[in-house]
Design goal:
The chain is an all-alpha fold. 51% of the residues lie in helices and 0% in strands. The two termini are 68 Å apart.
Length: 297
């Protein structure tokens, strides 16, 4: 049955708005999935949404700090630590270390040592600071203590062994490697230290000409770039349209139709007679001949 009139759409009832707890629960669920999948930038946006709804949520703030450290956004991490009531002295010292604020990082580590809240990470951080200051002996002592107090199988022991080897190699070079390199070069260290290196000076004056009257030697002729098999004036020049497609050239060989056999008007255009014209028969005209052929059939 044909429809006479379109049915009016009924207004959709507005869905009830979710409560604050439900919205926060959904955001935390999404945040956990993003952390598990290492989608740190999207997780950071979710933390901002949670903090917009719950500005004093400590879990969301600490998670945001962790994400900022993973994304190497150390200045924003320091701003978060200062703006939020978080007692995270070690994290502040780590951010200062990554921002090359050596003195401030040492002050915070000393505060942790005096307060008796020094963690294992503080020793790692101090060893890194000593290594950056080229205090390799102190760095070696810290890494040796960390290696003695860590489990044998684990990522921490591998990192400590790598850092310990780097510090030991620098100490070996300073103590013996440097002197061995000088001995191989046969250099006198006392003379080398007494004589500072000379700095080459460049004069701004024009170079002097010894014989101004002597003519300069003639310049050598440039080698010809013409191929050996080409003779000027004899070898025909290449087609100037060789770089174009064949269909774009003025004379396209492919466009020419295959010629028919000579005769039968091959190659003739309209209005051109080829060969001798047929002579009329004795009966008058050529029509009679056609009729005779039909009768013979």
């Amino acid at each position: 049955m044909p429809q006479t009139a379109s049915k009016q759409r009924q207004p959709v009832a507005n869905k009830p708005q979710k409560s604050l707890d439900e919205r926060v629960a959904l955001l935390f669920t999404s945040l956990a999935a993003q952390l598990e999948g290492a989608h740190f930038r999207n997780a950071l946006r979710n933390c901002d949404r949670i903090l917009k709804l719950l500005p004093d949520d400590r879990d969301a703030a600490e998670t945001k700090l962790y994400l900022l450290l993973q994304l190497e956004q150390y200045e924003q991490a320091l701003e978060l630590i200062s703006a939020f009531p978080l007692d995270l002295t070690f994290e502040r010292a780590y951010c200062l270390y990554r921002l090359h604020s050596r003195d401030e990082a040492f002050i915070l580590l000393e505060q942790l040592r005096v307060a008796g809240t020094q963690q294992r990470g503080c020793e790692h951080l101090e060893a890194q600071l000593r290594y950056r200051d080229t205090a390799y002996d102190e760095c070696l002592k810290l890494y040796t203590h960390l290696l003695d107090t860590c489990p044998e199988d684990g990522d921490e022991s591998d990192d400590i062994l790598n850092n310990l080897g780097a510090a030991q190699s620098y100490i070996d070079f300073i103590n013996s490697g440097y002197q061995g390199a000088i001995h191989e070069l046969n250099l006198d260290v006392s003379k080398l230290e007494a004589s500072p290196p000379t700095i080459a000076t460049t004069s701004m004056t024009a170079p002097s000409v010894s014989n101004p009257g002597k003519p300069s030697p003639p310049r050598l002729a440039r080698k010809s770039r013409i191929p050996n098999h080409v003779v000027l004036g004899v070898t025909p020049l290449p087609d100037p349209e060789r770089w174009l497609k064949k269909r774009d050239r003025t004379k396209d060989v492919r466009r020419a139709k295959k010629g028919k056999k000579e005769g039968m008007g091959a190659g003739a255009t309209q209005g051109v007679a080829v060969g001798a014209a047929p002579t009329p028969s004795a009966t008058g005209g050529t029509g009679a001949g056609k009729k005779k052929k039909k009768q013979g059939r």
